[in-house]
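Hi, here's the filled form for the chain we discussed.

Project: internal
Contact: R.S.
Residues: 214
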Amino acid sequence: MTADDRITLYYSPQTRAAGTRVLLEELGAPYDLEVLNMKAGEQRKPAFLAINPLGKVPTIGHRGQIVTEQVAIFIYLADLFPSAGLTPALDDPMRGPYLRWIAYYGASFEPAVIDHFMKREPAPVTQSPYADYDTMLSALEQQLAKGPYLLGERMTAADILWGIAFNWTMTFGIVPRKDVFTRYAERITQRAAFQRVTAADAEMAAQHAAAAGG
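And the returned structure, exactly as it came back:
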């Protein structure tokens, strides 16, 4: 394995990037962290803005290329390590539903929960990317009720993305703690990979807070 085959994850603890780190752990992928102290504003400095002009994590580097956008990163990484079994193959009938629910996260869920959290008036249903908040959430509830995972009995990278998202948004009261969402999130947060990353994040976040305060 060459240095280019290793994945560089531009990272800050207790952010969306944690989900990508959990996925890398689940995949057994070789990776290195390039840690940014967001409490010190390192994500807004020229060095990182030259890599991702939006100053956002997660961002990954692999084989000389940069990949941004959480949904793209999840698809890319899961496809890169098919032997881990977290992505349906291109000729798998479940490939379409898998892509549907991953894309739904970025296209519908995130804009809806941000509008909801900010108490912004949503666009008219005919112009909104997510119809309306309740409809968007109801579609997820109906799909997860078939469980235990989005694609039934099979866990995929989509479940890591969504399980962590539900855990995070329910913690802050953005998404209601319905039983189906709670049980689903627990299936992911009880896994060893999530527990390892959470413990490491707590230690790293404490170090960043101390450094920023000093």
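Let me know if anything looks off before we file it.
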